[in-house]
Specification:
The structure is a single chain. The chain has a single domain, classed as Nonspecific Lipid-transfer Protein, Chain A (2-Layer Sandwich). The protein has 4 helices and 5 strands. It has a 5-stranded mixed β-sheet. The longest helix is centred in the first third of the chain and has 12 residues.
Length: about 110
């Protein structure tokens, strides 16, 4: 299934590829801020090995991820890795950076692999 927009990916694809067995010790609220014409704000809540994604802004997330919508689409299509995006300054993490590394194993931030 090809994802056309960040909204479609976050609300439909991501919950389907999420690996709950890798999220045993994760209890987090991740704020996703995507800029650009297909951007928006989403809250991803990971708790009790479940993932829930809703549109909106959380007042005190554990981690905030900022990225342009076009770079986000390159991430999920595999054209850009999260590591490449980070070192190129295309993705910004605010808050618990260690959490970002843990989320990679759950499929959450390892979109393109």
């Amino acid at each position: 299934m090809e994802t056309k927009t960040p909204k479609e990916f976050l609300e439909k694809t991501l919950p389907a590829i999420f690996k709950p067995e890798k999220a045993v010790s994760i209890d987090a609220i991740v704020q996703l801020n995507l800029t650009g014409p297909n951007g928006g704000d989403w809250i991803a809540t990971i708790k009790n090995q479940t993932l829930q994604v809703t549109e909106g802004i959380h007042p005190s997330p554990t981690l905030t991820v900022k990225i342009a919508d076009s770079d986000f689409m390159d991430l999920i299509s595999g054209k850009l890795s999260a590591t490449q995006a980070f070192f190129a300054g295309k993705i910004q993490f605010i808050g618990n950076f260690t959490l970002a590394l843990k989320l990679k194993d759950t499929g959450f931030l390892d979109f393109g692999s």
